[in-house]
Amino acid sequence: MSSLQHCLLLLIISAGSALLENYAIARESRKKHSQGRYPPQSHFPLRAPIKGQVLFWEKVFYEHPSSRVLIHDSIAPEKIIDVIDFMAYARQHNSSKMPEKKVRDDLIMAYLNRYRMALKRFRLMGKKALRHGAIEQRIFSIYKKNSRDLSDLFRGKIQIRSQQGLADEFLKAAQRAQHYLPFMEDTFKREKVPPEITRLAFVESMFTPWARSKVGASGIWQFMPRTAKKYLRINRLIDERNSPYKSTIAAAKLLRDNYQKLQSWPLAITAYNHGTSGIRHAVRKTGSRYIHKIIQKYRSRSFGFASRNFYTEFIAAFRVYDHLLVNGAIKNHPKQHQNLRAIRLLRPMTASQILAQSKIPESQFKKLNPCIRDVAFSRYKHTKLPDSFELYLPESLITDFRVTMKLSRDRNYVAQ
Length: 416
Hints:
Shape: elongated
Strand content: 5-15%
CATH architecture of the largest domain: Orthogonal Bundle
CATH topology of the largest domain: Lysozyme
Largest sheet: 3 strands, antiparallel
Helix content: 40-55%
Number of helices: 17
Number of strands: 5
Order of helices and strands: HHEEHHHHEHHHHHHHHEHHEH
Radius of gyration: 25 Å
Number of domains: 3
CATH class of the largest domain: Mainly Alpha
Distance between the termini: 56 Å
């Protein structure tokens, strides 16, 4: 074992009690506040077996900032084994700054390795593993409360993982959401989708229009290219996944299509992550259309942690956002509130032609239409955008712009 690993493991033991104390204080503070209302049970049933998962994600979204990492059970995430507080670690090292990423990663891995070692000891030694120290005792205190959990502990069936807190990021996302939610809710209502499902954008991207994933998903609604092409235009000039407005229309249609195939909003929501064919397979395997039973019983290599928790993350995001809104933690920003309208090109035009003949600055035009790739203004500046392509512009510029450009009548899409 390297000296760094040794120091990190010592920190687990020395700081563990302080971290648990801080966690207990935060938990008591949380009990004083309502976490917001639940979405309507008629559309979004929440049975007792998965309420623990919702509670876990509420803690992630509301209680623990990104400077903390939770060590928890992979199947029952509400079983939080420990909390790593990087700011507490920094203070112990006479620093006021977060440790560098490598130090954080090493610390997380040290925690996971030490706890996995303890889990292995329970599998090999049973209750005798308790003699090895505080880590084993902490694990035992969590799993001894239920005979089935204790049996799983001794049989080596417990798996753990780490989850970074997101409370600070969620608050920023809630503020960004103010700019998009009115448009999103109107769009979902028009497509016959419950407007509460707009909160799924917290789970997908934290309302970040420029979000990009390692596997190729893009935009607020994190569409993969293959799925997006059913609803959106993607080519060398255009990627409509990156338009908050166009991708919202596509997300509503996808969710509506999921519902028509599955006849359940919890299943339709989970299918947004796992696909309708995957959910149909889960229904066949479990013999149930209830989401809580699928989460509990269905096991598949593709139905991993993200898919199992997708629906409960949505419920938690809805509740935490509602709580922040009701308690005034989210403040409106008048500068972000502007009326937008979508107008459609009647003939092919280049982006340069549109800018040259209109009064809108290029920076503003790009901000409102991020689905137009940068190459449309540079490498392919002579390549025309197709007719029927929709642009989003401020309402104050629509009349002059439409007359100048000879565009079709606008459709009223209002975003605040």
